[in-house]
Design brief:
4 helices; alpha+beta
Length: 183
């Protein structure tokens, strides 16, 4: 949806689209979610006074069952506060009508499309709370033309957008289907 929408918009009379795409990767995302059940954590020998105490986690930890769901609650709350509406048919897809931004989220990775000033606004708002890794691409001269999202390479070309699959998944499928010797 997002790739098609971005490639289609702004291509009038041979002009280059002014819309850009951005990937935001939120570092240590799961540590921002609140636990919904009691989770005890084993403490070091010194902190537990010889095993006398255990810790109680208030925030979710990677590897716990609640972490992904708790993180999605955080994302939904943050996006609501920033003025985004979530798609009714697909969770994790958001639209900001006033800024004409579109966002697709997958866990801690966000793929965003919009005008550069609005992309920068979203990045700055999220940087107030989170440590981010950011990639931006566009069709204008001087813009980077390639980024990575969920292990896939997205490449902007003069004729549109190329999407290159993840080699790791391809190799896995080739092995699963016993096609190692095929051309």
């Amino acid at each position: 949806y997002l790739l098609s929408n971005t490639a289609s918009r702004g291509r009038r009379y041979g002009s280059l689209p002014s819309r850009k795409m951005m990937v935001l990767e939120i570092k240590r995302a799961f540590l921002h979610g609140l636990v919904s059940r009691t989770i005890h954590v084993e403490l070091s020998e010194e902190e537990s006074e010889g095993g006398k105490y255990v810790g109680r986690s208030v925030k979710t930890l990677y590897g716990t069952r609640d972490a992904p769901v708790a993180w999605q609650r955080v994302v939904k709350k943050d996006m609501d506060l920033l003025g985004f509406e979530e798609c009714r048919r697909a969770s994790g897809v958001y639209i900001h009508r006033g800024r004409d931004l579109r966002v697709v989220t997958h866990v801690d990775d966000f793929l965003v499309a919009g005008e550069i000033q609005h992309l920068k606004w979203l990045r700055e708002e999220l940087e107030k709370t989170y440590d981010l890794k950011v990639q931006i691409v566009g069709w204008q001269p001087g813009d980077s033309r390639e980024l990575s999202f969920l292990g896939r390479t997205i490449r902007l070309t003069n004729s549109g957008i190329e999407l290159e699959g993840d080699d790791w998944h391809v190799k896995g499928l080739i092995g699963e289907w016993n096609m190692q010797e095929c051309r």
